[in-house]
Specification:
It is built from no helices and 11 strands. It is mainly β.
Length: 123
């Protein structure tokens, strides 16, 4: 089983920054894509960002373009989400996800999930 553990969530004022980390288990962990999703209270889970694990292609939802940056450290089996210029609408539980099946659906089809990290942005 692939296990994903998020960290770095917290409370920040609007305009501030947070950096989330996600560590994947296994010395030889391999995924086509690593990504971040989020779920706000009472809302559906939505795609945020993803990155090709064996490349550097990145994908973002429109609402975070120019503010969020996804990156990775393959040696440490870690994916990051740098979140700048945070807005109250960014408040959500952020989930790390992995796609170990295909690279063709960078915004959906992820089959492994972390436990979630709470991000709260105050006005």
């Amino acid at each position: 089983q692939v296990q994903l553990v998020e960290s770095g969530g917290g409370l920040v004022q609007a305009g501030g920054s947070l950096k989330l980390s996600c560590v994947a288990s296994g010395r030889t962990f391999n995924s086509y894509l690593m990504g971040w999703f989020r779920q706000a209270p009472g809302q559906e889970r939505e795609f945020v960002a993803s990155i090709r694990w064996n490349g550097y292609n990145t994908y973002y939802t429109d609402s975070v373009k120019g503010r969020f940056t996804i990156s990775k450290d393959n040696v440490k089996n870690t994916v990051f989400l740098q979140m700048n210029s945070l807005k109250p609408d960014d408040t959500a539980i952020y989930y790390c996800a992995a796609n170990t099946v295909t690279w063709s659906t960078p915004r959906s089809g992820f089959n492994h999930w972390g436990q979630g990290a709470q991000v709260t942005v105050s006005s």
